[in-house]
Design brief:
single chain; 427 residues; alpha/beta; Rossmann fold; 2 domains; six-stranded parallel β-sheet; 18 helices; cell membrane; lipopolysaccharide biosynthesis
Length: 427
């Protein structure tokens, strides 16, 4: 968990005109949607729906994905659901995923207002949620304080707190204790996260469980999958969620493997789709999914630079590498390809998903490699052993089935809070 206290203090002091200038500049960089900037100030003409309303806030893409199964269960009961996020990427995903899940008319999406006291107040006075869930590390003090003043029950969902962040928070323990006290209950990702939160306050802690391990398989259009599968003529692997600094390493790995695996197709997926053109250029003008290009049948590189299609991309190959892990970023969520029965590798930098990586590695569903050379060696071995690769994928898919009930448990806690009942008996 990384509460940006300095940023929060700065936002509180910055004038509204200065913040509006900042938001307009973000529009120019593709980080905001111009016609939806009023939402960042909690200006919204949409009437609040009648009846129960539960509000969920997820920062970005990964957090949004993890909470969708919870929203689907909550939508089975009467009332409305409000989901706020902070990124354009998450909005694009929701525009695609909510209709696919039959939630388009049940879940209202808005961009979260900046954590300015008057904007936070305007947002809560308009929507009047009966309960709210903040996902993972989304701690905005003004929003939380305003909700507490209105006696809105709050839950911290899938909460994580690294050892480093815990050490920093201990230095401001009184402030942290007050902020965590705004929550009625905390649901931690792991037992270690729960212990760290417990050491900082008295908020009740639920049993641990990572929602990112409980998500359903990523969706796919089977007709598109069939069409693309027939256009792939040789061995194939996916390098997903790549960050700057990893592209060249993946291209080098592809060149080396192509010498012993003729017709090899390497699918490169940028973490941020806007890097697709840059990635394709580095690969010598590789075809791009966003332009409608099919993968080259004779092998090579194909850049999959679209949003919401990882379910399709992972299903095209038995092997997947998760980016953000060959550089000092912290890695991406390996559970998504594992759930689809893919054999998965990650690099040495997986601090963002330490517990998930350890769980999957111990279960034989994931391999850690120290560098790009080791990644190439792993891929070579896996491409030469299709049976062993399939067995590795099956282990992972079976391992994650144990977490299938977690979304319903979280939805139950939120529903009890909205009804005015403690999420934990006796709390």
């Amino acid at each position: 968990m990384t509460l940006p206290l300095a940023l929060w203090a700065g936002l509180t002091r910055v004038s509204a005109p200065a913040l509006r200038i900042m938001l307009r500049r973000r529009v120019g960089r593709g980080k905001e949607i111009a016609e939806r900037l009023p939402e960042r100030e909690a200006i919204d003409p949409t009437p609040r729906p009648a009846g129960r309303l539960i509000w969920m806030h997820a920062a970005s893409l990964g957090e949004t994905m993890s909470i969708l199964p919870v929203l689907a269960i909550l939508a089975e009961a009467p009332g409305s659901l409000l989901l706020t996020t902070g990124t354009v990427t998450s909005q694009k995903l929701l525009a695609k995923r909510l209709p696919e899940m039959g939630l388009d008319g049940r879940v209202i999406h808005r961009f979260v207002p900046l954590d300015v006291p008057c904007w936070a107040a305007r947002f809560l006075d308009h929507w009047k949620p009966d309960a709210a869930g903040f996902v993972e590390s989304e701690i905005w003090p003004n929003l939380l304080a305003a909700a507490a003043r209105r006696k809105i029950p709050l839950m911290l969902v899938n909460a994580r707190l690294s050892a480093r962040s815990h050490s920093r928070w201990k230095l401001a323990e009184r402030t942290v204790r007050q902020i965590l006290g705004f929550f009625s209950v905390i649901h931690p990702q792991s037992a270690q996260d729960g212990e760290r939160f417990a050491s900082l306050g008295k908020t009740p802690i639920l049993p641990a469980g990572n929602l990112k391990l409980a998500a359903p398989p990523l969706p796919v259009d089977n007709a598109v999958l069939s069409q693309l599968s027939t256009s792939i003529g040789g061995p194939v692997w996916v390098a997903a969620s790549l960050h700057p600094g990893e592209d060249a390493l993946i291209l080098q790995t592809h060149a080396r493997l192509s010498m012993t695996h003729p017709g090899l197709l390497t699918i490169m997926v940028p973490r941020h789709p806007e890097r697709g053109a840059e990635m394709a250029a580095a690969a010598g003008g590789a075809p791009r999914r966003s332009l409608g290009d099919n993968p080259p049948r004779s092998g090579g590189v194909w850049v999959a630079d679209t949003v919401g299609e990882l379910g399709l991309i992972y299903r095209l190959a038995p092997l997947a590498f998760l980016g953000g892990s060959l550089i000092r970023h912290g890695g991406q969520n390996p559970a998504e390809p594992v759930r689809l029965g893919r054999a998965v590798a990650v690099g040495p930098h997986t601090e963002n998903f330490t517990d998930t990586v350890a769980l999957l590695e111990a279960g034989g569903a994931l391999t850690r490699v120290v560098d790009a050379q080791a990644l190439g060696n792993w891929l070579d071995a896996r491409l030469k052993d299709p049976w062993g690769t399939s067995a590795m994928g099956e282990k992972g898919a079976k391992l994650l089935q144990a977490y299938a009930s977690l979304p319903a448990e979280i939805a139950g806690h939120l529903s009890r809070l909205a009804a005015g009942t403690p999420a934990i008996d006796g709390a």
